[in-house]
Amino acid sequence: MTQQYPDFRSERRAGVLLHITSLPGTGNTGDLGSEAFHFINFLADCGMTWWQMLPIGPPQGGLSPYQTSSAHAGNPQLISLETLVNSGWLNQDALIDSLDHTAKKALLQQAYRGFNIKATIAERTEFNIFCANHAYWLEDYVLFRAISEQRQKSWWQWPKGLRTREKRALTQARDKLLDALNYIRWEQFIFFQQWTALHHHAATVGVRLFGDMPIFVAYDSAEVWARPQDFDLNPDGSLRVVAGVPPDYFSATGQRWGNPLYHWEQLEKSQFRFWIDRIRTQLKLFDLIRIDHFRGFEAYWEIPATEEYAIQGEWVKAGGDALFAALHREFGDLPLIAEDLGVITAEVDELRRKYQLPGMKVLQFAFDGSNDNIHLPSYHTQDSVVYTGTHDNDTTCGWYESLTPESRHYVYEYLGNPNEAMPWVFIRTAFASVANLAIIPLQDLLGLDGQHRMNLPGTSDGNWQWRFSWSQVDAELPARLRYLIKLYGRAAQDHTA
Question: Where in the sequence numbering do the catalytic residues fall?
């Protein structure tokens, strides 16, 4: 039977953009514990229907959620230790503040030992069922990670037998790393178990989860190691070309992301198994999924791996049409949003419309002085998601403060010289838009300046670390939002699951 998804294309709704790591609480990052449940209750109180977040996979050294070691696995740092204590597998004294990555992993391993000692037959059965149901990605991931942690090297630096996945070498590795493999399986079991509980709670109060799926995967990832034929690599597995974008709003020299690009001909020969598996996992986690860098499905910016800067790249046609046709054959009408920002051609827009994927409008991009700018409210369409800004933008207050007096005047003149100050004039504009879905970053709802932005594209330091505090939330905020959401027809009529 075809899975049913929320009617996101016709409902007028509103939501908040906040990554889970930005939640408050003990430890060095937000997680899936009580603060996540509290935040969902807060959204429901505000009349918000959607919680949009960034990718939730295990990030690599730079903490970017867009560079992860797996296209399927959850970030174990998001596991709630509090919940593990409540399960009886971890001692209460584990709940201390400022845990770094290493310290939290040690506590997770302690909880794993507690599970092995105290878990009931039903809990062990649930674990085994999880491993069986997720084997299509889990087994490659746990072996990849166990070998990575044992050798402390990237997969292309492993001995040849492991690097090229020779059967004998992999069998020996599984035998030698048996306990590590079981621990990593358990870690993912706990992540998905906690996620499912959060997702269920959200549904009971009328909040839906809106995920974000990067188009590319990291070079040092389980997928590139396990399925190198799906990627445009040299015969020895080294990078031939890498992903990025040409000069744009964020960078005068473009952005060199460094991800491997796809071997589209091989993907099609495999009937897009890589993407079908990936979408299947995401649909277990989210009610709606934003596909990052949608334009890369029509044509992508190919940069020779030897080039230091993205400006040396070129556009190359992709196989997105065949991919989305295959996805529709497999899943039917999918709950996908296209991140169609950047250099968007008629061909990219045609691909998006062919598969009825809503695009994005960003108010911070609208006021460049061009009266035909597609981000201006007068050009919005119902099949859009409107944002004041995204995780890559400055906060709206920070953005507005950076404008010249002439630009500030133009913004207010266009919007009819409203009496409200920023960011609320933008929040109201987003809610008033004909776009069916309006998403506001939490920083804007809190009126925060540019010191609170999440990411500055093209830089590697200080990003992805912002967290909010409940002390920043005005007591009148829920009532103010409920009023605006009702005023502009974005209120859900029925908050039942």
Answer: 292, 339, 392
